[in-house]
Design brief:
Elements (H helix, E strand, L loop, with lengths): L2 H41 L2 H28 L2 H25 L4 H23 L2 H4 L5 H29 L2 H19 L20 H14 L1 H31 L4 H24 L6 H18 L2 H4 L4 H33 L5 H29 L2 H19 L2 H5 L3 H4 L2
Helix pairs in contact: 1-2, 1-6, 1-7, 2-4, 2-14, 3-4, 3-7, 6-10, 6-13, 9-14, 9-15, 10-13, 11-13, 11-15
Protein name: Permease
Pfam families: MFS_1 (PF07690)
Membrane topology: Multi-pass membrane protein
Length: 420
């Protein structure tokens, strides 16, 4: 294949990758919205949401390294198509069950658990494949457009889901998601996952699972920037969970913001991510990504502390809504400004044969801290209050970032990672 043909194929990959991501995430957003309301209707308890969340997070903690191992050792295309097909079958199974027996809460939890496994396999394998699908000069564009697709579906999914829930049954939600997975799999089957592969031997000697994961961890430790970011992710995800838990707690419980306006606030968060993703898709690649990441995390800390202001002072209802809309939008923008440069660094700096295991270990570490953080901050909000929980978290984020991304670390970044 000539370079011109490869470039055309890479362009095709760029758009098919984004379209399939939007379709599958859109279907999942509609399902998540509908199933959340259905759980509330079925159980009448917030505890049902917590169990469903555990069923979603737990598989990612347990099986992400397995997904990374398989992505590095077997056909990425086969894994992606298999996991997408499994997701369609799982949702189809719940649909058939609901038609004949009427769905119960246990069936929903099982479906959530299995869907979490299948979507996690698809996500990690796709992430480890980006540099094989797209030419190096357009990796930032690919990462940004992918994020824009996810953000768009996060905005549109709940809106359509809300309209559908008022007029349609659960079967329509399930059918929509099943079709979205099937269409995404059909589109992905046309992609060539070895277009820009740098691995000479496509059938390497396969190590045992434990040895392979150990070698992946050893590779991370041997790369100073990767090792630094891995340790940062462990700590930052712990403290940043305070925003995930704190935002709905402050807005809904403390300030009494109604569900419609809270939905608008969440929509502006996704809108911030969408806008900044589109910006990264057209701008030149960053020449100093770690500096942008450092500033972004410090800004996140500032937004975290600022989110407590309406609790400590007294504002009108409309000002509170506008204030949190602004914070949510800025939070979405800043997260994209952190995630996109790191994603590009990883795609260019990690050896292809290790990418699956590296992304799998990162997924496990980031997800593992989320339940712990939710427990810690859920209790601290009740025991010591919002201000004493979130403001110290902001200081910890600044301290961690300042120490771990000090100038000597940024200057010592691998040139192949840090340069366009």
């Amino acid at each position: 294949m000539t370079e011109v043909d490869k470039n055309k194929q890479a362009t095709y990959h760029l758009w098919i990758f984004s379209i399939s991501k939007f379709i599958s995430t859109f279907g999942n957003s509609i399902y998540s919205f509908g199933i959340s309301l259905y759980i509330l209707e079925l159980t009448g308890s917030a505890f049902g949401f917590a169990i469903n969340l555990i069923c979603s997070v737990l598989p990612r903690i347990l099986f992400a390294p397995v997904s990374g191992y398989l992505a590095d050792r077997y056909s990425k295309k086969f894994i992606i198509l298999s996991s997408q097909s499994l997701a369609a079958l799982v949702v189809g199974g719940l649909l058939v069950y609901n038609i004949f027996f009427s769905v119960n809460i246990v069936a929903i939890y099982m479906t959530t658990f299995l869907l979490s496994i299948s979507t996690m396999f698809t996500g990690i394998t796709f992430t480890s494949s980006v540099s094989s699908l797209i030419d190096e000069n357009r990796i930032q564009k690919a990462m940004a457009i992918n994020q824009a697709s996810v953000s768009s579906s996060a905005i549109a999914g709940p809106i359509l889901g809300g309209l559908m829930y008022g007029f349609d049954s659960l079967n329509v939600f399930l059918l929509t998601q099943m079709v979205s997975y099937a269409v995404a799999a059909l589109l992905e089957s046309t992609m060539k996952f070895q277009l820009y592969s740098t691995i000479a031997d496509q059938n390497p000697i396969r190590e045992k699972f434990i040895k392979s994961i150990s070698s992946g961890y050893g590779y991370i430790k041997s790369q100073d920037i990767l090792w630094t970011i891995l340790r940062m992710a462990l700590l930052i995800n712990l403290f940043s969970v305070s925003m995930v838990v704190g935002m709905p707690y402050i807005t809904v419980k403390e300030l009494g913001i109604d569900s419609f306006h809270f939905g608008v606030i969440e929509g502006f968060f996704a809108g911030g991510m969408l806008g900044s993703s589109l910006y990264f898709s057209i701008r030149k690649e960053l020449t100093n990504p770690l500096i942008v990441v450092k500033r972004g995390i410090i800004l996140i800390a500032f937004l975290l502390a600022a989110s407590t202001l309406p609790v400590l002072l007294t504002f009108s209802y409309n000002i509170n809504v506008f204030y949190y809309i602004t914070l949510a939008f800025l939070y979405g923008v800043t997260l994209t400004c952190i995630n996109t440069p790191i994603g590009v660094m990883f795609q260019k700096g990690i050896k292809e044969e290790f990418k699956g295991r590296v992304f799998g270990l990162l997924e496990t570490i980031s997800q593992a801290m989320s339940p712990l953080g939710m427990i810690i901050f859920g209790l601290s909000f009740d025991w010591i209050g919002i201000g004493w929980s979130m403001i110290p978290s902001a200081f910890f984020l600044v301290a961690i970032t300042t120490i771990m991304l000090r100038p000597s670390i940024i200057r010592g970044a691998d040139p192949t990672v840090n340069q366009p």
